[in-house]
Amino acid sequence: MIIKDLYTPHIIKRGKVRLAKPFAVFLAIVFLGAVIAVSFIFVIPNVGLRLPRRYYYILTLGTTTNLVQAEILSQQVKNSGGAGFIINEGVFYISAAAYLNREEAEIVAARMDGFNTGVFTVGFARRRIREFDNRADNRALRDILLFPLELIDFVIYQNLRLDSGATTDSATIYLLNTRAGLIEDSIRELYNLVYGIYEIGRFMIDTLDFFQDFLYDFQSAIAVGEEGLLTHRLKYFAIKHILAYRDLLS
Asked: pTM for the whole thing?
C-alpha cells in the first residue's frame, strides 16, 4: 500500500522511504508559492503601515497651576521673542521654543537666567496606519501624515537661523511660502483618498481637520507683519502643532 504524505515530498512504501519524483517536488514548490502569494494579497494589505516613533523637546520658562499667572508669563515670553504657548497638562507650562534633540534644548535652558527653565518632551507612538483595505492607500496616508513633521522640522531649523542672525525675516518668509502649496496638495490627496467612501472613520475626519488648521496657522505665521515678530509666530506655530499632532495620533 502506498501512502502519500502531504507535508513532505516523499513517498512511504512498506516502511521504506524514497524521494519523490522531481515533478512532485515541483508541484509542492508551486503550491507553497501560491499560499504565500494569497497571504500577501489578502492579509498583508490589512496589516497596515507604521508611522515612526518621534520626539520633540520643548523649552519651558515657567510652570504654574494658575491660569492668570500663566497668561502673564506667556506674554513676557512672547515679548522676548519666544513662543509663549501655554501647554495645559494639569499644570500650565509656558513654552519658549521647540528643539529636535534634548541636548540642544538643555544647553539653551542653561543659558536662561531669571526663569524656572525645563524641557518638556513630546513623543509620538509608532501608530499603525490601517484605515483602508489596500496597502497602497495606507501607504499614501502614511506619507501624507509624515509631511507635517517634515515641515515642523524645517520651521524649527529656520527659527534657529533667525535667532542666530544667519538669515532675515524676509528670506525666511520667502522660503516658507514655497511650502504652503505642499500643505494644500496634502489636503487634496486626503480628499482623494476618502472620495466615494460612504462612511469616513473618525481618524480620517480628525486628520482632515488637523490639516485645515495646520494650513491656516502656517499661512498666518508667515504673513508679512511687524519686523522681529516672525520668530515668535513660527515658534508658536511649531509647538501648537507638535501637540496637536500628538493628540491626533492618540
From this structure: 0.79
